[in-house]
Amino acid sequence: MTRLIVAAGGGGDAVAAAMIHAALYGDEDQAVILTYAWDRLLIDPVPGPRGPDNFTGLQPLTPAAWAVPAEARPIAPAGSTLPRLAAEFRHTFALIDPRYGVEGVTRQLEELVDHLSPVSIDLLDVGGDILARGDEPTLKSPLADALTLAACCQVNAPVRLLVAGAGLDGELPLEELRGIFGPLLHTLTAKDVEPIGSVLEWHPSEATGMLAATARGVRGTCEMRDAGLPVPLTAEGPTVHEVDLDEALTRNQLARAILATATLDEVEAHSREICGYSEIDYERNKAAWLKDQPPVQLDSDAVLAQVDQFEAEARDRGVTHTTFRRITEALNLNGSLREDLRQLLINSRPKHYDAPLWRITATTE
């Protein structure tokens, strides 16, 4: 049997899709995970999502849909985590190509449904920002979710919307989402995390990292992103809920506005009008700033002293955990140093590692 899972926002949603597929359906069948090649700038320095022309070695599934096998490679300067994910999972990762707007993604979905005859189609979002209206002050990245939501609502096949780890992306508080949820489908456990444990050691997703941490029993407050957003890690973190797809579309003003779009530029224009911004503009501005930053190497002693100061200030804010991306940003380090920083901290202070998060102890150890 083949199931189709659409990773609503790309990135960590694709990793979560592999975990939740196993948790809900077992390992008997194969999943095709349709996802964006849209990684953080520390992985892909080119702003926005990548299309098929940004890769070598893709495999055609249908005229409009391409698989990203382990042998595929992004064409420099672009980067992508998808080939490595394909190497670590037995699932097929197919590429969402948003260049032709919602019409293009809908066409991809319809072709895949005809080609695969999947026994189920799930649209998965980690965090719940797919349920945003568009005017929330904490909303940061509505575009990708709105695009996949709009496309899934136009496919002539039943699609089930799943929200995992509500609130864990730091965009919409759990309190705003709780009333929209349908049935509780599953509460993830440490055993459910096992299939993606090795991937979380290198994949930079913060929301899926916190989803896994809460499934492993981590509780507290995690500070994430460059803005230092505080995210509660509670017993509700590892839950997976079904949400009515039509109700989500009714709420999501951006998804409704872009239903007939045929280019990504049109989608961006609607995002600027409805939400006040496009996250691709944010990436463009940040990429331009990063390009002018001189390359640096880690000074271990200096970095550890800076981490001590960061942790002391975080404790005063009531923070118990943070992400390695957050520490990298807080120390004003280039994103390319995230993995070096991670290894330095884990090797020097292994008791602080609540995989895949960094634990801020009550007192300095």
Overall SS class:
alpha/beta
Please report the distance between the alpha carbons of the first and last residues. Answer: 51 Å
Shape: globular
Low-confidence stretches: none
Main beta-sheet strand count, sense and barrel state:
7 strands, mixed
Helix content: 25-40%
Q: Supply the number of helical segments.
A: 15
Strand tally, please?
16
**Taking strands numbered 1, 2, ... along the chain, how are they ordered across the largest sheet?**
7-2-1-8-9-13-10
Strand content: 15-25%
Summarize this entry quickly.
Helix 1 (12-25) runs parallel beside helix 8 (206-215) and helix 14 (324-330) packs across helix 15.
Can you give a write-up of this model?
The chain is built from 15 helices and 16 strands. The chain has helices at residues 12-25, 82-88, 101-116, 143-152, 174-177, 190-193, 197-200, 206-215, 245-251, 253-257, 264-275, 279-291, 300-316, 324-330, 338-348; strands at residues 2-7, 30-35, 55-56, 59-60, 66-67, 73-74, 92-95, 121-126, 160-164, 184-187, 220-224, 229-233, 239-243, 321-322, 353-354, 357-359. Strands 7-2-1-8-9-13-10 form a seven-stranded mixed sheet, with helices on both faces. Strands 12-11-14-16-15 form a five-stranded mixed sheet. Strands 3-6 form a two-stranded antiparallel ribbon. A hairpin with a 4-residue loop joins strand 11 and strand 12 (229-233). Helix 1 (12-25) packs parallel to helix 8 (206-215) and helix 3 (101-116) packs across helix 4 (143-152).
